[in-house]
Amino acid sequence: MATSAAAKAAATADEAGTAPVFTVEDGIATIRLNRPRHLNRIQADDLELLLGLLDRVEGDSAVRALVLTGTGRVFSAGYNLGDIAAGRGGRGAEGVEDKSPFEQLICRVEDLGRPTICRLNGPVYGGATDLALACDFRIGTTDCEMFMPASRLGLHYYPSGIVRYITRLGVNAAKKLFLTAQTIGWDEMLRIGYLTDAVPADQLDGAVAALAAILAAQAPVATQNMKRSINEIARDQTDLGPAADRFRLSLASQDIKEGVGAFFERRKPVFTGR
Description:
Layout: H1 2-16, E1 21-25, E2 28-33, H2 44-59, E3 65-70, H3 81-85, H4 101-110, E4 116-120, E5 124-125, H5 127-133, E6 137-141, E7 145-147, H6 150-153, H7 159-169, H8 171-180, E8 184-185, H9 186-191, E9 197-199, H10 204-216, H11 220-234, H12 241-251, H13 254-265
Parallel strand pairs: 2-3, 3-4, 4-6, 5-7, 6-9
Antiparallel strand pairs: 1-2, 7-8
């Protein structure tokens, strides 16, 4: 009996896999999905942890950019279908526009106050396609692919995800991906703008590191505020008052004085976020 119980416990632990891995190096935070035996699927228990990691990123002024990636040969198979079937992908907390917990996570990534890069180490499926799309940049390998199986599953995708697909990829691409549930390869992903760039697998780390370094070198407050304004305009939030306020704020900042001074002095600027 003891042996059977131990085997059952081991099987349960293996099924659960391991939690996402969080690291910070040289001002770049990395969140790595770490359930490779199950294609880095995201489970209900992961959601609060991931939201907490995003809070850590945003609460650390030394972090200038975030990289989101996965362990192994697949970026992620998306949200665990078992949790959806069990009702753990449904309504979110009251007062959060009735978003599901998974949708809340995706929207949090999209609106994070740091530039974000999705390092697509391989194929991306289901809700993970929206997780990657919520990032500001997506660099993938030349052997990656994607598909969105919502219509095949009888699922009407949550509204903010459909908005993201349409505003970032266009109506025609959104219809093809949502309504046909067809798989597309890296070349079409690049053509429709899903991928920012595609490189051979052995060049992926270098490409991601180079972009992260560029993002980390920019003025942090201006970068954060322009990202917010771009997202608002893309979502057709047409009140440009907040964007105008951010513009005026930047004109009074120490960072713009440093940036302009460094430009004329032909040196690298040192931004402080003030």
